Amino acid sequence: MSSVSTSSISIPRLRDSFDGRVTAPDDAGYDQARKVFYGKYDRRPAAIVRPADAAEVAQVVTLAADSGQELAVRSGGHSLAGHSVSEGGIVLDLSEMTALDLDLEGRAAWAQTGLTAGAYTTAVGGHGLATGFGDTASVGIGGLTLGGGVGFLVRRHGLTIDNLLAAEVVTADGRVLQVDAETHPDLFWAIRGGGGNFGVATRFRYRLHELPSIVGGMLLLPGSAEVIEALVATAEAAPEELSLIANVMVAPPMPFLPPAAHGQLVVMTLLCYAGDAEAGGRALAPFRALADPLADMVQPMPYAGLFEPADDMEVVEESARSLFMDGVDSRAATAIVEQLQATTAPMAVAQLRVLGGAMARVPAEATAFAHRDRRVMAGVGCVYQDAGERPTHEAWADGFAAALRGGPGVYVNFLSNEGPGRVREAYPGRTWDRLVEVKRRYDPGNLFRLNQNIPPT
Ligand SMILES: Cc1cc2nc3c(=O)[nH]c(=O)nc-3n(C[C@H](O)[C@H](O)[C@H](O)COP(=O)(O)OP(=O)(O)OC[C@H]3O[C@@H](n4cnc5c(N)ncnc54)[C@H](O)[C@@H]3O)c2cc1C
User: Fold this and answer.
1) Whose CB has fewer CB within 10 Å in the chain, the N or C terminal residue?
2) What is the spatial distance between Cα 202 and Cα 286, in angstroms, rounded to a whole number?
3) Is the pLDDT of residue 5 over 80?
């Protein structure tokens, strides 16, 4: 028997209402159904409900509001803070809502929010089209889009939200709203960066860009301070078609890495030139000239090729911090090398994403993601098995972040459980106050609170 209290909801009635798409603690598939990407969030909800459409989502929302049960909303289940699974409450699992309606002539797509970034990218890629999400196929379009969406097309086409044309949102009072720049513009502004605070997004309408192929893949360079500094400068000077994500780390003994690199500090750079092969070759030449590459797998490929192979892995314990930097000088590059050499964790990384381009041209007040002028987004972190080591690795992550941070500010989707002060840092200037106003209008009772929360008061 499970210890979960289901006193205020009737599981048999739920099963009737949702045609059996309900998993409860005594069901065979319960452990699989409650699992999220980060295994450390090992929680036992009272029920996991998989609605089929917006009307059923509204039913779950109303049930949670009426019963007082905690509501977790799950698209791809990759929340760093464990927000997509509840202890004792209801999980609204969107995984059965995966319809994708393409308007090829209008260069737009309506996508249900149970889709993953990878499934969407592969489907539209078949038509030579793309919308930019992040760097990982299994991340859900729901959480990623609502926080902003920073990926391989960020300098070319901006954030994911810069390509969001409209949305369908179920609000706390159970209404199904169609939202865009003209209809409920306050809500449309808030969901472009404000996360899951304002309702359940059931569908997004995205702009599609022609992208028949890219030049992309991994370039592996030695992880010296000189290379790190020069890499960032080269990326800032590159044409906007080029975005990259650079991971400075000790090279694991993986088969695609040359044995000479194993155990060495390397910069594993994933590059994406969103354009034709010839121009791509020219844009990539300065990167290849930074040092003798340890491996060079950059080549013409479909955009979806960047998301292979499958990326599912079991992450047990992680200590990570996200921050913005105003460039990477030799002091910062040296700090990266020293901190990565100092950790006692089995695996550690400093990730650098060079921003700018199309993302920076959107005015800060246009969306709830307002860090438009930041030049580099960095993440530092390590993974390990033993929770007992957590204090050591948390202190290391804090020290590392402090050594790099260029003032306050954080991307909400890369926040873990870091307290209300850090959530506020995600929303600089007037953004926070505007979000609180919208929250008050659409969710005054804070039904949607299992998230990086913006309280209505
Ligand atoms: C391995 C990995 C790689 C990542 N790479 C990137 C990257 O390259 N770029 C980037 O921008 N981010 C990246 N992220 C961060 C990612 O965007 C966030 O973790 C995001 O919240 C995950 O979305 P999800 O739908 O998978 O997660 P979920 O855990 O399902 O959702 C997270 C939260 O978002 C809200 N939410 C989700 N769907 C909905 C919905 N339909 N309606 C209302 N609220 C909803 C809920 O509050 C939920 O708790 C990465 C995360 C991981 C774990």
Assistant:
1) N
2) 43
3) no
